[in-house]
Write a structure and sequence with these properties.
alpha/beta; six-stranded mixed beta sheet; globular; Coagulation Factor XIII, Chain A, domain 1; 19 strands; 428 residues; Rossmann fold
Length: 428
């Protein structure tokens, strides 16, 4: 018997017009039109904005097709701008395709970003009922689930507090719990594990595995963390420039995607890099260099030197750099935390040089994140700026090295202990 078809995307296109569509008022639109006719800057636009012809369009999706069957957990991966989030919005019926057809067999619970579907003025409990009603559930059905939802979310203490007072982590916990426990046949998740503590991330992965394998529900999961994709999915779809370029085995998909990953080189301008995670903006990183390098490659006994150029937008008593290092599949290889930097002055430019002792990292490709944390009066860390990935680098082994073996990163990790003493002697 053929598996039940739950979701079908048939030759779907999504087209957008570029530029500003309407200025909000007739007067503003006329001003903008007259400035364009005269070849002048738009008086209602930001400095440096360009005009787009009204017929200039962009295809976020360019004829994608795929099918998903009951009980499947499918990974959807690709670089920024590949069309992943657009695909999920179409499947969640947030927006409609420009052409093509989408078939959905059942109710869809989606979590596209932190707080999606929550009303900020309503409490956590009220938002659970709101989300259930949107899915078409009755109050009695939600009543049967609500205690389980609250327990899983770990938000019981705050469940009757308006969610506008929740932290981003609390939002994610409650939103995931709602999506996972309400009666939907299809779950759509976009980077749901990017926020929240590690214990809850593992809890979410276990729950999604149960939902797929034991409950027979269908999951479509987007993430830049290849490690979680591998844990959850056996099949993966790779998108590039709005097209499906691969649909099949998860390991093959990840290898294809990582092979197309951008190499940042030995210097990177991040002044205009789009920050996606919550941060204060009191610090702005502008450039990152690997001085003395032609290529971002180090050997196993070499230290990694970084120069970080940044600007302070406010006075800060003390701050520090945190540099998470991940293997190319997204699994963690370690974290560097700098000593505190004191008395940072507003509107001042700085250069920070960091030398990372990476001796012990085994052969492979790695990504570095770049976080500047303000340290508050209680010793807590608050993100002032955050870039990930900030740079990438490759570790190579030296000739005749004991580490010149086929290293199994999945089983052995990404670190080998250097300078280990070993003494062998004969005994009677």
């Amino acid at each position: 018997m053929a598996e039940e078809l739950m979701l079908k995307v048939d030759n779907v296109y999504k087209k957008y017009r570029l530029g500003l569509i309407g200025g909000g008022t007739l007067r503003g639109d006329l001003q903008s039109w007259w400035a364009k006719v005269r070849g002048k800057d738009d008086p209602n636009g930001k400095l440096g904005d360009k005009y787009y012809d009204k017929n200039e369009t962009f295809y976020a999706l360019n004829g994608i097709s795929f099918e998903v069957h009951k009980g499947e957990a499918i990974g959807l991966i690709g670089g920024n701008g590949a069309g992943k989030s657009t695909t999920l919005k179409l499947l969640s019926q947030v927006t409609a395709p420009s052409s093509g057809k989408i078939y959905l067999n059942g109710r869809v619970a989606s979590m596209l970003e932190v707080g999606t579907g929550f009303h900020p003025e309503l409490t956590g409990r009220e938002n659970i009922y709101l989300n259930g009603a949107i899915l078409g559930m009755t109050k009695a059905e939600i009543d049967r689930k609500i205690e389980e939802i609250i327990d899983f979310s770990e938000c019981r203490q705050f469940i009757d507090t308006p969610v506008k007072r929740y932290s981003s982590g609390m939002y994610v916990k409650l939103a995931f719990s709602v999506a996972a426990h309400l009666d939907s046949e299809i779950m759509i998740m976009d980077e749901v594990l990017a926020v929240g503590d590690m214990a809850f991330q593992e809890k979410c992965l276990d729950k999604m595995n149960d939902i797929s394998k034991k409950e027979g529900r269908t999951i479509l999961y987007v993430s830049h963390n290849m490690n979680t994709i591998k844990q959850l999915c056996k099949r993966c779809i790779v998108l590039e420039h709005g097209r499906v370029i691969f649909d099949g085995d998860c390991d093959e998909a990840i290898e294809l995607y990582l092979g197309k990953e951008t190499e940042f080189g030995v210097t990177r301008d991040v002044d205009d890099y789009e920050r996606t995670l919550e941060h204060t903006g009191n610090v702005h990183i502008t450039r990152i260099d690997m001085p003395g390098k032609t290529f971002p490659v180090i050997n196993e006994k070499e230290q990694l030197r970084l120069e970080i150029y940044w600007t302070a937008n406010n006075d800060i008593k003390q701050a520090c750099f945190r540099l998470p290092i991940h293997y190319r599949d997204g699994s963690s290889a370690g974290m560097f935390i700098s000593e505190n930097i004191h008395d940072i002055k507003k509107n001042t430019k700085y250069k920070t040089t960091i030398v990372l002792n990476t001796v012990g990292l085994v052969k492979g490709k790695y990504n570095i994140g770049m976080i500047v944390s303000e340290i508050n009066n209680y010793g807590g860390h608050v993100r002032a700026d955050h870039i990930y990935p900030a740079m990438n680098f490759t570790v190579e082994t030296l000739p005749n090295s004991v580490n010149n073996i086929q290293w199994n990163h999945n089983v052995w990790g990404h670190y080998t202990y250097p300078n280990t003493s070993i003494i062998t002697e004969m005994v009677k």
